[in-house]
Amino acid sequence: MHHYTYDGTFEGLLSVVFEAYERKAWPTSIVQESIAQPVMFGENVAVVTDDLKAARVWQGLQKKLSVSALQALYHTYLWEQPGFEMLIFDYARLTFSSNDSIEGNYTAASVLQIQQIAKQVHREKHRMEAFVRFEKTADDLFYATISPDFNVLPLIIQHFEKRYADQRWAIYDIKRSYGAYYDLASTSLMHLSAAQAGRQKGKLPESARHYEEDLYQQLWQVYFKHVNIPERKNPKLHLRHMPKRYWKYLSEKKVHPLL
Amino acid sequence: MNERITEKLTILADAAKYDVSCSSSGGKRKNENKGLGNAEGMGICHSYTEDGRCVSLLKILLTNFCIYDCAYCITRKSNDIKRAAFTVQEVVDLTINFYRRNYIEGLFLSSGIFKDADYTMERLVRVAKKLRQEHKFNGYIHLKTIPGASEELIKEAGLYADRLSVNIELPSEQSLQQLAPEKNYSEILVPMGNIKEQLVQAKEERKIFKSAPIFAPAGQSTQLIVGASAENDQQILQLSDNLYKSYSLKRVYYSGYVPVSSDNRLPILTEPPIIRENRIYQADWLMRFYGFDVKEIVDDQHPNLDLEIDPKLSWALRNRHGFPVEMNTADYEMILRVPGIGVKSAKKIVSARRFAPLNFEHLRQMGVVLKRAKYFITCQAKSLQRQDFESQLIRQKILFGDRSVRSALLTQQLDLFRQVG
């Protein structure tokens, strides 16, 4: 029994794969060191992240997998749900152990599961691209907060960079306490202090909002209401497309006092 | 000023919503000028109305003043409603400001016909031109082509718009004469033909000169109203098939008629025919993505789609001689025809069986709906059914469950069918 721990980074996880192969000691579990429980039986292996080892594992995978399969592995890392480390390990091991590509082998549990997880993460990414609502600040920054089910912020940056090349914008993940800021030239990651972040939840304070912001939120609400066809009302379908947990982002779902 | 724009938006969004197209995909406009917006690739639904429809575009009329009197249309001349008109600048401001806040993918602009076709079309083009040229806007623009507009204006529209559409609305010339006496089929089909030629020509030119201007890269679409006139599903689907083949349309949209008018030229409906509309969409999908010919879906014996079951299941029950299909050996095309198996599952099946013989558990995990599929397939020559059932019995079992227990939901749905039928 070999219990591996790592620092929680993707490179760290790839280092675990390297270490396991070097020791020929297949992991029973792989856990982030910050949340690892002491183990009663078996050996504890604390892996230190090594960029070179990680790169060698990645290159090995690149030789055998398509870009979309590699992406699915990375998506599984961003999925963050219990057990994702072992899934990635199993997939990597299956890849290294077979001569042919294993990508379409949906009869193997890890292949099918990773394909399904990648789809879930992709869906959440797509939802963030759809449901982010920027508010314009008095100094012309377009600001939005998110708290996605999975850690998809790294996946949506490029989309917003391309789309809003001519405006400054920031998207902050309040659940994971980090954000992305685009300054018309490039995007950087940022952390806000707890006090700042506390203030950033929900709507921007009145003083920070651009003078036209309320008008456009209100016009959007008016539009949303009038594009609806009451005769076709279908709450079930509405909820399927727009589950309630996403409503917090949507200005059209906040009822305006004037309406 | 704020109240005025709010009122205009209220009126002109209300009037535009019966046009169901809201697609924003298929544009090829990349943000290469460091401008605003990017419309390459997939469209995005930024919100959903309470009727469950996608909100992707700011869909409005430039004006709802109209010189025509089409019976099915809320904007018709004889209808006593409030009228309003946006200025070009107002539409531009709304589009830009909604887009910057990530509310929309772009603009879908249509209009009532004021003065004449060209006068109206010229204004629509002006909005698109201003967005593209003055604001470096690369978001999606869908312009409605006004029936009877000149070829030059259509050509110009295509330079700025990602998609153009001319709505046929009524699925036969006879209904058009009855319900929209000022319109005729040639006024609709001529611009449609023009757009098609421009699309082909622009593609040819771009093969030779990379810098040749693009023309409506997301192609053209149209809309048919279902239930405002007497056509059966066979007539509607044959028309669509023809439009896809002869005019290379990207999409035909179907809009279940919402009773917006008490005009005595129209049938009396209490509710829009939503289930019928849904079945027609399913049939449309079968033609476009599942390799079905229109004649396989509807024919003289079955001119209308079955409202209770989907058209693929309906086809399979009429063609039992082709089943069961063995999942480990059948062609992709045939797997695609099995009820309960969609494009994605079919692809997975064909991919996975290269590695190991498939069983029913594999299929279930891949997302196959065995409840419908099990009557039509075998895995390694095994079936989930101990005996061969009659088509009628399979239909019963699928509709009412294996033990034929009627759920409350189903009873309610059947009541709905009765109302619709």
**How many structurally independent domains of chain B?**
2
Mean pLDDT of chain B: 89
Question: Which overall shape of chain B is indicated by the principal axes computed on the Cα atoms?
Answer: globular
> Which geometry of chain A do the CA atoms define?
elongated
Tell how many strands the DSSP assignment of chain B holds.
12
Biggest sheet architecture of chain A: 5 strands, mixed
The fraction of residues in strands of chain B falls at 5-15%
Helix content of chain A: 40-55%
> Which strand order do you get reading across the main beta sheet of chain A?
4-5-6-7-8
| Quaternary class | heterodimer
The total count of strands of chain A amounts to 8
Describe the protein's architecture and organization.
The complex is a heterodimer of chains A (259) and B (421). The model of chain A has no long low-confidence stretch (mean pLDDT 91). A 5-stranded mixed beta sheet of chain A has the order 4-5-6-7-8, with helices on one face. In chain A, 45% of the residues lie in helices and 14% in strands. Chain A is built from 9 helices and 8 strands. With 259 residues, chain A is α/β, with parallel strands linked by helices. Chain A has 3 domains: 2-124, no CATH class; 132-210, no CATH class; 212-259, no CATH class. Chain B is 41% helix and 11% strand. Chain B contains 16 helices and 12 strands. In chain B, helix 2 crosses helix 3, helix 3 runs parallel beside helix 4 and helix 4 (151-160) crosses helix 6. Chain B is an alpha/beta fold. Chain B has helices spanning 2-14, 88-100, 117-133, 151-160, 173-179, 185-208, 233-246, 274-289, 294-297, 311-318, 332-335, 343-352, 360-366, 370-373, 391-400, 408-420, and strands spanning 27-29, 39-41, 47-48, 54-55, 57-61, 106-110, 140-144, 163-165, 220-226, 251-256, 325-326, 377-378. Chain B has 2 domains: 2-297, TIM Barrel (Alpha-Beta Barrel), CATH 3.20.20.70; 313-420, no CATH class. Chains A and B meet through helix 5, strand 4, helix 8 and helix 9 of A and helix 1, strand 3, strand 4, helix 2 and helix 12 of B.
